[in-house]
Design a protein that fits this description.
The chain is built from nine helices and 15 strands. By secondary structure, it is of the alpha/beta class. The protein folds into two domains: 152 residues, Medium-chain alcohol dehydrogenases, catalytic domain (Quinone Oxidoreductase, Chain A, domain 1, Alpha-Beta Complex), CATH 3.90.180.10; 151 residues, NAD(P)-binding Rossmann-like Domain (Rossmann fold), CATH 3.40.50.720. 24% of the residues lie in helices and 25% in strands. Strand 11, helix 6 and strand 12 form a beta-alpha-beta unit. Strands 3, 4, 5, 6, 7, 14 and 15 form a seven-stranded mixed sheet that branches. Strands 10-9-8-11-12-13 form a six-stranded parallel sheet, sandwiched between helices.
């Protein structure tokens, strides 16, 4: 075991997109666990859009910001290498929010054991983890799709969006995706069997494009991006459409707020329901969701892709690239070998 624990701490709060200089790589001795604690060696580190909001100075609505010089927040999958907690044995694989560091100390309260025989351990940060559960509960509980309805997903090739579209197909719906590269379009239409998709970076008029692809209108909109794309969706929504607000990634790095059209008249005329949600709203039902998602994964009804960057030192680069849409599926950093 290394005697040094490398960590990324918040060096400065970004204006616009984060820069690598907003993070400091520091080295400290590896801590020894006290009674009731365990030491976890990180194998995979997750980088996710929500982390951008945690870098701001204002307090978030559900979680505090990362403090200056504090270890960046983040989920990991790792191996228990020392344990003074009877509930965890050395050699077990666990998942938890231990932050951007190579070694983490935990009391075990936030850790979940990962069974490597069920699926590759990286999936505990993706399709069988927070993104998968976000897609599952966001679609089925918030949006409540019905067979033969049309489900539109923005950020459709990302960790959450790519799963939402597949779940919609399982439910017997038509899945339409919005994404940002032709490679991602091919992934959605080929590997994931979406019914249609378009590249917003090559589309001049989003509203006209949606009318072309979905002339019958949209029944469910799963929103990961917000902004001008979402503005264009509202006029094409059907009577009693449902919207899940999962993310607003197009807004996270703005230095000035965007001015948008006021389109809420559509909510009156069409009796639209829009709801924001967090996956933590469903924490008491995680096992239900994971059981079903695992079943679909093993049967081949669900597929996933991971974009993996090797080397802990490359975590800031992986994070920035993810915010700029350069990943397909779940963005991970491989920190060490199993």
């Amino acid at each position: 075991m290394s005697k040094t624990n490398r960590q990324f701490v918040l060096a400065s709060r970004p204006s616009g997109y984060p820069k690598e200089s907003d993070f400091d790589l520091v080295e400290l001795p590896v801590s020894e666990p006290n009674d009731g604690q365990l030491l976890v060696r990180t194998i995979f580190l997750s980088v996710d859009p929500y982390m951008r909001g945690r870098m701001n100075s204002s307090r978030g609505s559900y979680a505090p910001p990362v403090e200056d010089r504090q270890v960046m927040t983040g989920g990991v999958v790792g191996e228990v290498i020392k344990s003074k907690n009877s509930s965890f044995q050395e050699g077990e694989i666990v998942q938890g929010n231990l932050g951007w560091q190579e070694y983490g100390i935990s009391t075990g309260e936030e850790l979940v054991k990962v069974n490597p025989d069920i699926a590759p351990i990286s999936t505990a940060l993706g399709i069988l983890g927070m993104p998968g559960l976000t897609a599952y509960f966001g679609l089925f509980d918030v949006c409540q799709p019905k067979a033969e309805e049309t489900v539109l997903v923005s950020g459709a090739a990302g960790a959450v969006g790519s799963i939402v579209g597949q779940l919609a197909k399982i439910e017997g719906c038509r899945a339409i995706g919005i994404t940002g590269t032709d490679e991602k379009i091919n992934y959605l239409l080929g590997d994931l069997a979406f019914d249609a998709a378009f590249n917003y970076k090559k589309t001049r008029n989003y509203r006209h494009k949606l009318k072309e692809l979905v002339p019958e209108g949209t029944d469910v909109y799963f929103d990961n991006v917000g902004g001008k794309i979402t503005d264009a969706v509202f006029p094409n929504l059907n009577l009693r459409a449902r919207i899940a607000i999962c993310g607003q990634i197009s807004q996270y790095n703005l230095t000035e707020p965007e001015l948008g059209p006021r389109l809420f008249q559509y909510f009156i005329v069409k009796r639209i329901r829009m709801q924001g949600f967090l996956v933590f709203d469903f924490i008491n039902r995680y096992q239900e969701g994971l059981k079903q998602m695992t079943k679909w994964l093993h049967s081949g009804k669900l597929k996933y892709r991971e974009t993996i960057v090797d080397g802990f030192e490359n975590a800031p680069t992986a994070f920035i690239n993810m915010l700029k849409g350069r990943n397909i599926g779940k963005q991970l950093v491989k920190v060490s070998d199993l």
